[in-house]
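Researcher: Here's a chain I'd like modeled. Treat it as a single chain, no partners, no ligands.
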Amino acid sequence: MSKPRIDMHRLQELVRLHRKGVAPTEVARLLRMSRKTERAYRRALKKAKLLEGPPEEIPPLEELQEAVERVLPPRTPPQQESTAGRWRHRIEELLTKGKQPKVIYDVLCREQGKDFVASYDAVYRLVRRLRRERGVRPEEVAIPLVTRPGLQAQIDFGYVGKVFDSDTGRVRKAWVFVLTLAHSRHMVVRLVFDQSEATWLRCHVEAFEELGGVPEFLVPDNTKAAVIRRAFALDEETTLNRSYRELARHYGAMIDPTPVRDPKKKGRVESGVKYVKRGHFATRELETSDAITERRELQRWVVDVAGVRTHGTTRRRPREAFEAEERATLKPLPASRFELRRWAKATVHDDSHVRFERAFYSVPFVHLRQEVMVCGTATSVLIYLDGRRLATHARVGAGQWSTVEEHLPEHRAPYRHRDPAFWQQRADAIGEAAGAFVRAVLEQDEVLSHLRQAQAAVLILERAPRDRAEAASRRALHFGNLSPKALEEILARGLEEGSLDGEADERAPDAAPPAPRFARTPAELVARAQGVA
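Model: Modeled as a single isolated chain. Structure tokens:
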């Protein structure tokens, strides 16, 4: 016979009815058991001499249970050999490390290959039996937390569905940010469209301002916006997100991240997220509503519904408990609002710029290919190397460039400008003759661009004194030589002051340059071409 399933209270009633002289058939009917079952228990109790005595004096439950198990010991059904039994030792080893049945099955498949013939169900059943045999371990016991007012806030995100975003004109995935005070269970809730670092920090700032203070400890999940690297053991180091660390320092709070794979350690906010999703969003038609309306209705629900409900654990109304006990214990807000900052690693590219949030910012070219830290605020971008600031830029939009000329090699920096008008403007700033020379360089061919020659000419002229640059430009134009190299040779040999065949250049500034003058006459050139000396 298998292990008795009848509860002991029914056995007490069976004893009472038999002591009153009720027939066995009637006892079985009244207790809703088969006659066979009634007969088995009656014989066991009769053998223990427990059916005798007055009906009012019923034996205690423990005595009845001991008598039944002594006569009818529970029998374990025949156990078939598990197909996973050959690997029991390895399964126990993985189970001790906290691995779940699916992970254990995958590990065995990978390690044993074709030799592993057990199914996942066989592994699951064996794991379940091993857990029963092992019993409950102390670390599996959830210790109830007692938190005084103002001590701790637990923070998490929860996905709620898709909401129409009027700013972008499309339906987007949406999450709810929830901060729950561990003592009062009072919540601050925000509807957001991403879980980015900027959103995470902004929601914290708004939450502290709504609460009117700051709790001593912040207990976040292991999101990258809070924790870059989580410690998996007590002797390992946790690396916090630098921006989140700065926020906590600004507000005077400590950060206590949730242990890895242990969401129960922040169960109060986990419950809060579920409550928000089931209590508010479950009844909302999100895709037909816009984010502005949903944020307004969510805030109303937090105040009028969530804040005045009787909490299932504390049996108090969260907002009343917050106002009465917790608000006054929060740390006061600092004098200034936290300036949202985002830190990121970046590599200086070969163009002497780093990419940050889809925009490009220059760095002194001597740091090419080095890794730097970039700090972005709402209005500026700062670039650091080993704690030393290399550059400061005003924010620019996505796809735009912010370049400081001094960050590029001095003789190559101007070449980044590819607009001919830029170079024409620089030449005009030198003087009329320089402007006319560069204009002639740029316009000498209707199809082929001579921008590079114009760039070289401007840089050559800018290095010379203004009067010499103007004289050299006039001489080059007079002889129709538009080569930057010739211009450089004129300046190097001091030829700009030479005679221009005794003709004074009295043309108006806007007049076209004179026809080129040549050392030989046209007749001499024709004769030379025909082979005549």
